[in-house]
Amino acid sequence: MSVFKLPGLLLKEIETMLATFWWSHKRGEKGIHWQNWKKLGMVKSKGGQGFRDLDCFNTTLIAKQVFKGKYFQNGDVLQAKVGSSPSFIWRSLWSRLKLIKDSMVWRVGNGRNIRVWKDKWLP
Q: 89 is in which domain, residue-wise?
């Protein structure tokens, strides 16, 4: 999904399979629709199940590859620089990185990626 724009018909078919799995009890049998698909797609904190809109997700992954190739080939978006002749979209996204960084929660995890002198690991 991060390389090719998948056809809408394929994405709809995948969503149908997900819905069938979610709502059915037995193979080939129609189940009870406990919630509509739009509600299931809402984030969990708002009562949904967090299922992704596959078309938006596909587009987002492709856009991430394009920006990575042009603006942050050797790192991640959090260390990216604005560059010498950025597009309007990149300038807009880059201008919001401080907001994203300030809102993030840093977790140690397994400790392998800790950069003691570079990471902001204490507030």
A: 74-109
User: Which pair of tokens denotes residue 69?
Assistant: 């190739």
How far is CA 54 from its chain centroid? 10
What pLDDT, in 10s, does the model give residues 29-40? 666 667 777 787
The pTM (predicted TM-score) of the whole model is 0.62
Contacts of 82 (CB under 8 A, 6+ apart): 90, 91, 94
| 79 and 41 together in one domain | no
**55 and 88 both lie in a single domain:** no
DSSP conformation class of 34: S
Would you give the DSSP letter of residue 105? -
Do 82 and 53 fall within a single domain? no
